[in-house]
Amino acid sequence: MLGLRTTPTKGPITMETAAPPLVELTGVNKHFGALHVLRDINLTVHKGEVLVVVGPSGSGKSTLCRAINRLETIDEGEIRVDGNPLPGEGRGLAKLRAEVGMVFQSFNLFAHKTVLDNVTLGPRKVRRASKKDAETEALALLRRVGVEDQARKMPAQLSGGQQQRVAIARALAMHPKVMLFDEPTSALDPEMVNEVLDAMVALTKEGMTMIVVTHEMGFARKAADRVVFMADGQIVEEADPDTFFTAPQSERAKDFLSKIL
Ligand code: ADP
Ligand code: MG
């Protein structure tokens, strides 16, 4: 699909341009032993687009995210980020991990470091930012996600929703080109889900390119430019959110939606 919207806001696809996709998967296959977890995945995400990935547990959504960040290797096919094939080991990989920010279901903060240190560590190490510059930017990012007042605390002193917002700030501190979210609210108590989703919606409004795996259909309807439905390692359906939620085409998608909505 070559469709590319010209603005990051939700709306009809209006224009095609020659800009390369920010993320492009071509013929991607991945096995875990006998299990074929990613089957001929073709997917493009353009700058400013918000792609929401849904599908039953075990359908390969996390593996897809992890492959884009090269936390998993693939057996076949190609993944490009901003036009470049994924690097091997070494410095190229650190650069990729900076360009592709990732927020996981579990909060993954460094438990023995303060919130502020969690956010400044990457920029200082990878971007060689000065302590002062890294801290100034970290505080601004923490303010953006509403947890600036937690900066001097340890992660364990924060609620799950606060920790997840710190994780978002930490990824943003690397100046990513694209953000991946793998079920970022699934491990949260219900009353904390919205504060994290709100921070994500704010990011979409700033034009961030995002790939979001989530079961939060309200978020998908509100924020997605496109929804991809995966089942058994395949992309079964790809549509704009209104079409996907009101008129799913496949039996698998209908069945999935009937259980989740
Ligand atoms: P989802 O995120 O959609 O729930 P996953 O990508 O986590 O799906 O998993 C897809 C399939 O691959 C599942 O059957 C899962 O059990 C299997 N799987 C995931 N990671 C591994 C691994 N490291 N080793 C073996 N099997 C795995
Ligand atoms: Mg998963």
Automatic annotation (TrEMBL):
Gene3D superfamilies: P-loop containing nucleotide triphosphate hydrolases (3.40.50.300). It is an enzyme of class 7 (translocase). One of its GO terms (molecular function) is ATPase-coupled polar amino acid-transporter activity. SMART domains: AAA (SM00382). CDD domains: ABC_HisP_GlnQ. The keyword Transport applies. It catalyses: a polar amino acid(out) + ATP + H2O = a polar amino acid(in) + ADP + phosphate + H(+). Pfam families: ABC_tran (PF00005). Its EC number is 7.4.2.1. This is ABC-type polar-amino-acid transporter.
